[in-house]
Amino acid sequence: MRTTIASLAILLGTLLGPAGCQNDPEVQARMAALADMPGITVTIAGADLDHAKAQAISKHIEGKAGETTAAMVRMKKDSEGESSLEIELYANSLPSGEALTADLTSAFPELAGATISIAPAIGGAAGDLPIIEVSKDLSPEEAKQEILDQLQAEGVDGNVDVKIQDSAEGRRIEVKVDKHEIH
């Protein structure tokens, strides 16, 4: 059994049910569903956020969506040292922009002076990310190594962190690629 996931930045989601290789019709149907999944992009500028706070905000936003499939979190700094946080979230149901903005400023007082913009995500959950196949028969450590090997083979560079949790609902995989680019 294999599960196909798209990865880079962070992929959040519970992976359920059997799957096959990339040419398997079941996997192709899942990838098509990911491509058509509704998404939003939340951009927060003007707030000094560390990685832990960015993750807390991302998990909070994920909790407001129904059946999250993927979330990509990007922290950016421009040449003047100003930072912004961008969270791209794909889920079966998404909160409205106004409600989410109000909820974020209420839950995170440090965002009160920040500029929060919410727009539809462009490109679908699979986007241009590499396709990674993970055998469900592997232990979490073996699956982690399989993901790392495939990302390296795809030419993904940066600091890669993979977290895998097994639960009664299935397997949850988070892949984080931390890259520092200067533009």
TrEMBL record:
Give the signal peptide, or none: 1-21
- Tell me where on the tree of life, at the top rank, the source sits: Bacteria
Q: Which UniProt keywords apply?
A: Signal
Q: What is this protein's record name?
A: Lipoprotein
**Taxonomy of the source species:** Bacteria, Pseudomonadati, Myxococcota, Polyangia, Nannocystales
